[in-house]
Amino acid sequence: MLNLSHNNFTGSIPSSFTGMVSLTLVDVSYNQLEGPLPNMRAFEEAPMAALRNNKRLCGNNTSLDCPIQERKKANKHMVQKVLLIIFSTLGCILLLSFVIVGIFFYIHKRNPSDTNMTQEIETNLFTVWSHDGKMVYERIIEALENFDSKYIVGVGGYGTVYKAELSTQVLAVKKIHAPEEDSELQDLKSFENEIRALTEIRHQNIVKLYGFCSHPRHSFLVYEFLVRGSLKNLLNDMEQAVAFDWNKRVRVVKDIANALSYMHHDCSQPIIHRDLSSSNVLLDSDWVAHVSDFGTARLLKPDSSNWTSFAGTLGYIAPELAYTMKVNEKCDVYSFGVLTLEVIMGKHPGDFISSSSFINASLTEILDQRLQPPVKEFVEQVKLLVEVAFSCIKESPHSRPSMWDVARGLPVDNGVSLR
Fold it and tell me: Which Gene3D superfamilies does this one have (predicted)?
């Protein structure tokens, strides 16, 4: 027997009582209970005295009967609960369906250019290698506003250079000019192998090549950006040319020689620049020179002494290329000699380079007239540069020195600060 009388319990009697199979008698009198009694023997056979003085107990007992209103009310509450569960479930399913449909339409109605760009990257035609991490294609295109002309900082024979300002660094992006319709497309695999080798180059006087994009839509090279720009533009600017004094000029020529010596003699496969000019030498904020623009450079294979494709900038091209078309390291040596004279004279020597008056000219006639003559400690160094330049522009390639010999023979700092 379970005696729960005189406890002032309220509400309905829990249905869990039906699990108490051993319960035979119960007393819930003198409480505030209401509703139907549990469907079990102990309540069905309970005397009226065990149920008296409650609020409104009914049913499941011979002494009690639930009014019709109570049964309807209980049924109504049950129906409401069931409907609430059903509509809540349907609402969640409907909301999830709207979300899925919305995502579907967003993906398929995006800007076509975004979709095309994603497809381009997924085709593996876009490749970037870098010691400093992969450059992100979308970020470059976004920074340049799809190669808007306002970002152009230079134009050459093989491409246009843009300045791309990303959130973490500034890059120089050289967009390669599209080939003519009748030109044969270069083998992509061969091109990739060459660029991969060039990205391995790490020399203080060679512009860092971070990577490239080879794709029908955009083909470009990604370099580090150097703030002072090209040597050519610097020499053509009066204010900068005056600031570019003799000690800085001696150092720049030495920097260029070191870069070419490294390319010719210290790489696993010698690299011939093939287009060395003042446009392809860039200076950083400390006036340190960096050789750039390998747009026409080729790796010279160990089993080949030349590469027979004419390239270069007029005024810097070795004379033998006019009839032999054989490119080797001595072609770069000739271009270096012309470039050295350009640094000393402040302008390209032009036709004066082959005239008898140039050979018989004095040092003061050759020097850039915008500068004061070099002071005593630099006179001998500048003279040596002139002598080296003349040895590099000899007509016979075999008479020209190697860049390794040139780099060894050029003057050193002599304790003078060049920056």
Answer: Phosphorylase Kinase, domain 1, Ribonuclease Inhibitor, Transferase(Phosphotransferase) domain 1
CA 228 to chain centre: 23
Least confident of 62-76, 133-147, 348-362: 62-76
DSSP state of 281: E
Q: Give residue-wise pLDDT tens across range 78-106.
A: 777 788 888 888 888 888 888 888 887 77
Asked whether the beta carbons of 6 and 32 are under 8 A apart, the reply is: no
Record the pTM.
0.63
Q: How far is CA 402 from CA 261, 357, 416, in A?
A: 8, 27, 27
171 near 223, Cβ under 8 Å? Answer: yes
The CA-based dihedral angle spanning residues 15, 21, 23, 25, taken in that order and rounded to the nearest 10 degrees:
70
Which distant-in-sequence residues (6+ apart) come within 8 Å of 75 by Cβ? none
3-state secondary structure 196-256: HHHHCCCCCCECCEEEEEECCCCEEEEEECCCCEEHHHHHHCHHHHHHCCHHHHHHHHHHH
- A 10 A CB-CB count for 215 gives 16
Please report, in range form, the residues annotated as the binding site for ATP: 175
Which residue type is seen at 363? Answer: L
Residue with tokens 């050789």: 291
What single-letter amino acid sits at 359? I
Strand 229-230 to strand 281-283: parallel, antiparallel, or no bridges (unpaired)? antiparallel
Q: Which residues pair with 209 in a beta bridge?
A: 223
Q: What is the pLDDT of residues 139-166, one digit of tens each?
A: 888 899 999 999 998 887 667 899 999 8
Which one of the listed residues 275, 293, 332, 368 is annotated catalytic?
275
Strand order in the sheet with 10-11: 10-11, 32-36, 56-58
